[in-house]
Specification:
With 301 residues, the protein is α+β, with helices and mostly antiparallel strands. The protein has three domains: 82 residues, Uridine Diphospho-n-acetylenolpyruvylglucosamine Reductase, domain 2; 111 residues, Uridine Diphospho-n-acetylenolpyruvylglucosamine Reductase, domain 3; 83 residues, UDP-N-acetylenolpyruvoylglucosamine reductase, C-terminal domain (Uridine Diphospho-n-acetylenolpyruvylglucosamine Reductase, domain 1). It is 28% helix and 28% strand. It contains seven helices and 19 strands. The strands form six sheets. Strands 6-7-13-11-12 form a five-stranded antiparallel beta sheet. Strands 1-2-5-3 form a four-stranded mixed beta sheet. A four-stranded antiparallel beta sheet has the order 15-18-17-16. A hairpin with a 2-residue loop joins strand 16 and strand 17. The protein is globular and about 55 Å long. The chain binds flavin-adenine dinucleotide (FAD). Flavin-adenine dinucleotide (FAD) binds next to strand 3, helix 4, strand 9, strand 13 and strand 15. The site of flavin-adenine dinucleotide has 33 residues, from strand 3, helix 4, strand 9, strand 13 and strand 15.
Length: 301
Amino acid sequence: MIEKLKDTLAGIKELELKYDHQIKEYTSFKIGGKADIFAIPMSVSALESLVKTLGDFQVPFFVLGKGSNIIVGDKGYRGVIIYTGELKKVIIKDNIIKAEAGISLASLANKALETGLSGLEFASGIPGSLGGALYMNAGAYGGEMQDVVKEASLLDYSGRRLVLKKEELDLAYRHSILQEKPLIAVEITLELKAGKAEEIREKMKDLNQRRKEKQPLEWPSAGSIFKRSPGYYAGPLIEEAGLKGLRVGDAQISEKHAGFIINLGNATAADVRELIEKVQEIVYRKKGVKLEVEPRFIGDF
Ligand SMILES: Cc1cc2nc3c(=O)[nH]c(=O)nc-3n(C[C@H](O)[C@H](O)[C@H](O)COP(=O)(O)OP(=O)(O)OC[C@H]3O[C@@H](n4cnc5c(N)ncnc54)[C@H](O)[C@@H]3O)c2cc1C
């Protein structure tokens, strides 16, 4: 079957294929093994054909944005990783932005700035794709995707298109319907407000400066490793439990921000997982709070 699948995939136009390909270079943590197949659709129609084919062949797949909120297992992924990073077309009309899901939030925020549109400043330092940000309802400094999303054009796992309005996307703290149902974000429509370029630029600069001061951006990581628990931020809890600097292999609780696990060079997914479990166990024992992991675990550990 694998040969027939390979032949069919090779027949899809505007689709790049790599076999037995390293995933870690496509993640912010720089951790993880190889994918059996790594597929890069260069257009939305290639993505549609790809998803339909994988459905027909019943092959497991994972949709990858910028890989900034995942922990990929050391043994990699059995199936197809679909990298969306080449889907980055944008159309701006008045205060409405329609963008393909693979564009980075940083470049989208810059385009909004260039057009004098305000509302995406909060997102300019979040290192993900638009699709990943919708999936996570990403947010920072008082802003969240749900403040700006109008609707999303999605693909189901059989390759059919559907459009869901903001109200139907079930957006809440680090949650969207994409986490519940097999749906792929293809194109997202945002509604922003007219603003002054100078003010937008200043706000973005200020937020990015604050991020740089607080977060260990000089090391690979997957951002905040734990979700905010009701009434608590994970970072201070971990710090109060005396865990800053705790290390398993090359995975370490950041000295700069205890909510981050950083990769000091050669951390494995197994190191990260062991460190997460240690922190959860100690924080629960000392503080009575069950910390929930934010990034997704992908593939074989
Ligand atoms: C240094 C650092 C700082 C961060 N700061 C913040 C922050 O301030 N606020 C915040 O909210 N997050 C933050 N994050 C986490 C991360 O950037 C966000 O969660 C981001 O939205 C993830 O997007 P991504 O494209 O990297 O998704 P990925 O990591 O590639 O994927 C995450 C999930 O989204 C799914 N997904 C991706 N694209 C699609 C698509 N097109 N359709 C369907 N599903 C899709 C994936 O399947 C996966 O389940 C930070 C991360 C780092 C490394």
